Amino acid sequence: MGMTGRTIDVLFSEETIAARVNEIAKQIAADRPDDLMVIAILKGSFMFAADLLRALHREGLEPQVEFMMLSSYGTNTTSSGIVKIIRDIDTDVAGRSVLIIDDILESGRTLAFARRLTQDRGAKEVKVAVLLDKPGKRKAEIEADIVGFSCADVFVVGYGMDAAHAYRQLPFVGVVTG
After folding, report:
1. Can you list the alpha helix ranges (DSSP code H) found in the chain?
2. Per-residue pLDDT tens over the stretch 148-162
3. Who has greater pLDDT, 34 or 54?
4. Which distant-in-sequence residues (6+ apart) come within 8 Å of 83 by Cβ?
5. H or E element at residue 67
6. For 42-56, what is the mean pLDDT?
7. Predicted pLDDT of residue 147
8. Nearest alpha-carbon partner for 163 in 73, 71, 77, 78
9. Backbone torsions φ then ψ of 142, nearest 5 degrees
10. Per-residue pLDDT at 128
């Protein structure tokens, strides 16, 4: 039971996530991306991006980091289908390897939009890394290049993901059950 009075069951523990993030960093580093730029999609990816960037540093990579804020959810728990750029990146991606990091690939609309936008801006290569993949909810033609965990069709919170701006601070991914 948390401060909100709700019960949250742990789906992926802090330790499980940390181990997987290190594996993902090794996978990315093994490809030796050229002139890597990481674009973290705010707000939900902030914990995953921060942990993955530290793990990439331990693997010897020195990516440039940018942030993009896109929205297709508003305050609802289901995607509206319309993606809006709330905050764009400041750096030119032309000719660079880009890794887009997001918390979850669900409908795919937001990440398909971000990938297409980055490709249209001339990036040499665009890969997508997500902590969670919910393939059952896909509405857009997109698959992540790197997936932390496949996730059941449940509404998850924690590790940067929220429900009406709550639960982002949790160090694990959980499901609100009561």
Report:
1. 14-30, 46-58, 109-120
2. 999 998 999 999 999
3. 54
4. 70, 71, 72, 109, 110, 113
5. strand 64-71
6. 96
7. 98
8. 77
9. -160, 140
10. 98
Rounded-to-integer distance, Cα 53 and Cα 174, Å: 23
What CA–CA distance (Å, rounded) separates 143 from 141?
Answer: 7
Distance (Å, rounded) from C-alpha 34 to C-alpha 164?
38
Measured between alpha carbons, how far is 33 from 55 in angstroms, rounded to an integer?
15
Q: Residue 1: its pLDDT value, please?
A: 46
The amino acid occupying position 87 is R
CA distance 38 to 116: 15
Q: How confident is the model at residue 58 (pLDDT cuts 50, 70, 90)?
A: very high
d(CA 44, CA 156): 11
